[in-house]
Amino acid sequence: MLIISTIHIRRDIRERLTGDYPEHEFRFHKSITEAEGDLSNAEVIITYGMDLEAKHIDIAERLKWLNVISAGVDQLPFEAIRGRDILVTNAKGIHAIQMAEYTIAMMLQVARETKTLIQNEAGRKWERKLPIRELYGHTAAILGTGAIGTEIARRTKAFGMRTIGFNRSGREADQFDRIYTIDHLKDQICGIDYLISVLPKTDETDGMLNKEVFNNIKSSAVLINIGRGNVIQETDLLTALQDGAFTHAVLDVFNEEPLPQDHPFWLEERITVTPHMSGLSPEYQPRAMDQFDINMKKWEQGETDFLNRVDPDKGY
């Protein structure tokens, strides 16, 4: 079986894969362009997903398994994948630790006025009267109670925060004090201090955080988005912040990436922009390959209960 990659995989991981599966042929490429010559014979493709187009799926006539080593699969050409008996798996769960740490870091940054302190240090300004606050005793609300949301909740609880979660079903989840269905967000928004979104990009989540939410949120609240940029109605967000509806927004994901240099988010002092890096970690690829190992063993044994299987019809 020919297994190809369209991404740069670390040398130690390449050596591990070829050593663990000597009966299969691996060809490691650094891009989809470099891999095009092998597409027609590939039965398994290891990819981040955003590089694949419908034409690549069409060329890959022997493709049986698309292993996406990212959680988001919204950029996959599902229209070409549907109708073909292609297994699609993603890497849900491997981002949980680093994204939870990022979230806590940003919460503390805002609470302890870290950006102002850095600016003051650069300007040699001694100022102690800053509006700092604690996380303890405040309410964190997490939109999405899967692996990432649960890991964030584990850490907010460690800081003594009341932690509530929102999901589609209202199903209970570990680490949360209370779970609500997502349609109850508007009922709870006035009591939330930190609103954290880890929601994926779907039709249901498009524009979910809009003026209706922002007009009813606490004036001291902080918004953190590490899911997908489509969740936020950008114009409504800017207007709300400029009107003082709430304190700050930390944004790691955007409708357009890279964020254009002339985008107003860069100039708004109440917004912290980071370049879609909350999921980055030196442990990213090793964790992704651990999941690949699990599914590879299932594949070889003829099992069908694959880890993180994606439904092409649903897109997640």
Automatic annotation (TrEMBL):
Signal peptide range in chain numbering: none
Domain of life: Bacteria
PANTHER family per record: 2-HACID_DH_C DOMAIN-CONTAINING PROTEIN, D-ISOMER SPECIFIC 2-HYDROXYACID DEHYDROGENASE NAD-BINDING DOMAIN-CONTAINING PROTEIN
Domain D-isomer specific 2-hydroxyacid dehydrogenase NAD-binding per the UniProt entry, residue ranges: 104-278
UniProt domain D-isomer specific 2-hydroxyacid dehydrogenase catalytic: residue ranges: 10-304
Pfam families: 2-Hacid_dh (PF00389), 2-Hacid_dh_C (PF02826)
Keywords: NAD, Oxidoreductase
Organism the protein comes from: Bacillus selenitireducens (strain ATCC 700615 / DSM 15326 / MLS10)
Family the entry assigns: Belongs to the D-isomer specific 2-hydroxyacid dehydrogenase family.
GO molecular function: NAD binding; oxidoreductase activity, acting on the CH-OH group of donors, NAD or NADP as acceptor
Protein name: D-isomer specific 2-hydroxyacid dehydrogenase NAD-binding protein
